[in-house]
Each structure stands twice: as C-alpha cells, then as structure tokens.
Specification:
It is built from six helices and no strands. The chain has one domain. Helix 2 runs antiparallel to helix 3 and helix 3 runs antiparallel to helix 4. The protein has about 130 residues and is mainly α.
Length: about 130
Amino acid sequence: MHNHALSVLLAVALSISTSGVMAANLSFDEVLQAVQDGDYATAAARVHVVAEQGDPRAQEILGFMLIWGERLYGAAVRTDPVAGRKWLAQAASSGREAAAFYLRRFAERQAAQQVTTDSQNLEQPSR
C-alpha cells in the first residue's frame, strides 16, 4: 500500500512537472522518459545532471528519488534523506508546490517523533 501511494505521488509530480515542458528542455524530457520506462538508474543519473543545472522540476524529482531510494526504486537509487531534503528545499524555493508540501510533512513528522521521544524520556524513572 505504501509503495502504491509513493508511485501515485511520483506520477502526480511527473504530470505537474510536464506541464509547460518545451522542446528546449530535452534533457528533462529524457529524465521523465527514463522514470516512466522504469529505468531508474538512467533516470537518477540524468536527473542529477539536470538538477545541478538548476531545473526545479528535476530538483524536486531528485529529492523524491533520494528520500525513497531503494524502497521505491530498488538498488538503482541509494536512499539519502539528507540530500533528498536539500534538493526538495531548492525546488520548493523555486515554487515547486509538491516539494514544499512534502518538506512540511517531513517537518511535522519529525516534530511528532520528537514529542514522542520526549514523552518516553519523561516517563522513564531516573536512576
């Protein structure tokens, strides 16, 4: 179920990303084609180059790929949540709404986990 939700999210990000794509963005089109073909090793290599060139759509997709890594893409993409959040932050600062939404979700989850940890620490008797 979780992988299906992530696949749907990536499909939505891709459909949003392709709106307004022009022929001059052939490199980004190649990224999308590799993702849609399930060739994640090629997609990861291409998307990194395009993201480095400053394309916020590629930064967003690279962020998602790095955050979910092996869980969604198999051995083709190594999980690196720190780098993934960095790329999502760059994409969000350029107006990519999906990136901004997920950064907020990650922050909320992290805050909730911290509250749980703090609660557990308070409940443990001191020695």
